[in-house]
């Protein structure tokens, strides 16, 4: 059976919850209740499913996937989103291939519904030879199956990256969805709502566009939103409310259980089913490592990560020794997911800022040529107390702080040690570079607790932190980092 043009609408939105996407997760969590309430009022019978995912390497410390199956239960959806939490992510690519198969096999689609997948992310999928892709899922084959289905995929692409753009554009164009370039995190709920209205009908989309434009009064619509509505109103649109070509037919997707049900073994192989055979796959794949009760074993916690270099193809490992545990990029790890968040941290304090255009109190700031350095940030403490410091860079006032460096100090002169850190030969050039780009540097610190220290020597404490996290300003990091067009490293 195929989707009926005016049948009930079922919408899945999959969310990449790795560190770089944390603001997307925050935005959806804040506005989900209002968004779903509004859509349910305007589109009777609409149901939603949500998939949150990190990457395979997140199985041990976070999760690989969590999901809630199709429902119109608003409290259930809100409870899921509010408790899902972020993940770390390891390398550049993420497990989008896993999500594509999971949407196809692990959700309880209604056979005659209008089926929509909104995939939100900023990276690209793993290839079949990626060692942690144990089912050898080929995302290109998954997309090919979707081209013979009635699921429309809307690729919502965040950030500027050519390789990930190719992926999001391909999955959208080949499934009669639409590629959406999202320039501002705060637009994500407007994007989701606009897609839902487009699937309901052109007049619904036009009405919502008028409403959004009215927010801006006499001013022009935000450029990013202008692009979103422009893409969704394309004249060659093949949204679900239009009649589908006769060639677009698919066997019904395998109806599975909801969030409360049994999850399956990730090693289970999903047989390919010829769309013309009329049969439905019996076995399913891909464990959903949710916090809910599972009746079979979850994604194996013993998986190890693969050291990769950004934007380079992942080679097949020649030996077992090639599989190791890469560090998480510190700037991508959210506050709640930081391993040492249990320490008693100070608030982030502005420590260094550009000199130009800033009115400052000379009693509080030191004039250091082209930038200003705060004279004092922290109260004096006990001598011989060890502190863990973290430094972050903010590319624009009010923007996100990107953590770039850490150090552990055994205090003697407590008022100046953080400045001594930035004044080392390793960091001077980095500080000068971000100051030239009009960035600001923040500092925070925490007392090194007995639980953190354990049996480690003082000299080992910093390396202990850097075993888990890759700080881009550290000597152990070999990568570059560009945020909002600013070369931070």
TrEMBL record:
Residues 10-195 form the VWFA domain. InterPro entries: VWF_A (IPR002035), vWFA_dom_sf (IPR036465). This is VWFA domain-containing protein. The lineage of its organism: Eukaryota, Metazoa, Spiralia, Lophotrochozoa, Mollusca.
């Amino acid at each position: 059976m195929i989707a009926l043009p005016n049948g009930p609408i079922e919408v899945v939105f999959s969310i990449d919850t790795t560190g770089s996407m944390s603001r997307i997760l925050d935005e959806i969590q804040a506005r989900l209740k209002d968004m779903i309430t509004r859509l349910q009022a305007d589109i009777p019978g609409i149901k939603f499913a949500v998939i949150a995912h990190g990457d395979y390497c997140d199985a041990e410390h976070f999760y690989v996937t969590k999901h809630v199956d199709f429902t119109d239960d608003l409290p259930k959806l809100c409870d899921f989103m509010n408790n899902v939490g972020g993940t770390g992510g390891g390398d550049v690519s993420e497990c989008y291939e896993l999500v594509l198969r999971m949407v196809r096999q692990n959700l309880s689609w209604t056979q005659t519904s209008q089926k929509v997948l909104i995939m939100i992310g900023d990276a690209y999928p793993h290839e079949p030879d990626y060692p942690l892709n144990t089912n050898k899922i080929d995302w290109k084959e998954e997309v090919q199956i979707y081209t013979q289905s009635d699921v429309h995929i809307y690729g919502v692409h965040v950030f500027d990256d050519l390789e990930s753009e190719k992926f999001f554009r391909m999955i959208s164009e080949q499934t009669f969805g639409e590629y959406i370039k999202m320039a501002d995190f705060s637009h994500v709920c407007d994007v989701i709502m606009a897609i839902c209205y487009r699937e309901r009908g052109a007049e619904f989309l036009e009405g919502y566009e008028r409403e959004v434009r009215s927010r801006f009064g006499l001013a022009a619509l935000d450029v990013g939103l202008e692009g979103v509505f422009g893409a969704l109103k394309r004249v060659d649109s093949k949204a679900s409310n239009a009649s589908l070509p006769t060639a677009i037919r698919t066997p019904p997707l395998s109806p599975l259980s909801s969030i409360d049900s049994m999850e399956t073994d990730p090693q289970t192989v999903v047989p390919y089913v010829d769309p013309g055979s009329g049969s439905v796959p019996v076995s399913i794949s891909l464990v959903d490592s949710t916090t809910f009760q599972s009746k079979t074993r979850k994604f194996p916690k013993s998986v190890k990560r693969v050291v990769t270099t950004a934007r380079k193809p992942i080679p097949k490992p020649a030996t077992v020794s090639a599989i190791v545990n890469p560090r998480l990029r510190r700037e991508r790890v959210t506050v709640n997911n930081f391993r040492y968040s249990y320490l008693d941290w100070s608030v982030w304090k502005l420590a260094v800022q550009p000199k130009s255009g800033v009115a400052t109190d000379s009693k509080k700031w030191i004039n250091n040529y082209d930038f200003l350095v705060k004279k004092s940030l922290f109260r004096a403490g006990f001598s011989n107390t060890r502190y863990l410091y973290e430094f972050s860079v903010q590319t624009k006032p009010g923007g996100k702080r990107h953590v770039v460096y850490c150090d552990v100090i055994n205090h003697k002169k407590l008022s100046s040690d953080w400045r001594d850190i930035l004044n080392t030969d390793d960091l001077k050039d980095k500080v000068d570079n971000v100051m030239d780009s009009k960035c600001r540097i923040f500092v925070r610190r925490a007392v090194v607790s007995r639980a953190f220290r354990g049996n480690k020597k003082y000299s080992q404490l910093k390396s202990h932190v850097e075993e888990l996290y890759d700080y881009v300003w550290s000597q152990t990091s070999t990568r570059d980092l560009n945020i909002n067009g600013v070369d931070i490293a």
